[in-house]
Amino acid sequence: MAITKVSDLSSLFNLIYERAIFVARETNVMVNLVRNFSATGWMARKITKRPQIDAQDKAEGVDFANPTTFGKSNPATLTPGMKMAQTILTDEDVDTDPDSAVDDAAQELGASIATKIDVDVCSDFASFTTSVGPGAGSSATLNKFAVGMSVLRNAKAPNPIYIVLHPYHWHDIWVELGQPASQKAFLGDVANEALRSFFVGDWLNAAWFVEANIAVDGNDDATSALFNQAALGFDSRKEPTLEDQRDASLLATELNMSAGYAHGVIRDEFGVKYIADAATPS
Which of 76, 161, 186, 213 has the most C-beta neighbours closer than 10 Å? Predict the structure, then answer.
């Protein structure tokens, strides 16, 4: 007598795994914009840096006696943690509509990890010491983004500079560029392209990204940011992994997707936060 076992469904779960990993890796935005580390184990990573050495004047015939101590400091520590998502596919679901169940589970499990990573890294914006935005309750303005750019340039932040902002902050900029005010005339093609596309990847000497995973607080304000890659760190400790576990009494298969990582600010002087109103545009 032929008996169909849960092992006969293994091809479906392998497909879920492959698709879920693809979604987790390909739909994430922030990991590509920050400094990446990786390691095995779960010990905290201590970020170190050396001081800047400044050249000084030297008088003729006088021995130079002001060397710079070239030690190390510990400006930041990244502490890893585990993240997890789970769904359960019943036998009835798989038997009745296996393709739909597989596709839906793969997409959602991968997206959940990708979203969690973006949410976590975006939450680090609030940890930047310097704030350049118009503030809570005020609309985002292009002028304040220019202020942020100048602050980073003064801090000698290297290129490229990334601007990652909430979609409603970008809407404010889009509206500002679209007004027929004389002071916007110098923007020329930049403003025209912004109006046509609603999003421009690289303009005003920075790469702009709209990020819907920036949280909005209870007062409808959000924290966007301007930063160089060296300002933030993402430390991968466990790649997204999917495991299936049979629950015989439930007649279902549990799908568990997990990932482990750390994140945080590692060079505070290379990033600034930008707080502004993020109420839904009318």
Answer: 161
Q: Are 233 and 188 in contact (CB under 8 A)?
A: no
Helix (H, G, I), strand (E, B) or coil at 250: coil
pLDDT tens, N- to C-terminus, the chain (282 residues): 344 455 555 555 566 556 655 555 556 789 989 999 999 999 999 988 888 888 989 889 899 888 888 888 888 999 999 999 998 888 888 888 766 776 778 778 888 898 999 999 999 999 999 999 999 999 999 999 999 999 999 999 999 999 999 999 999 988 887 754 545 555 556 555 554 554 455 667 888 888 889 999 999 999 999 999 999 999 999 988 888 888 999 999 888 889 999 999 999 999 999 999 999 998
Could you tell me the pTM of the whole model?
Answer: 0.81
Report the C-alpha gap between 122 and 114 in whole angstroms.
12
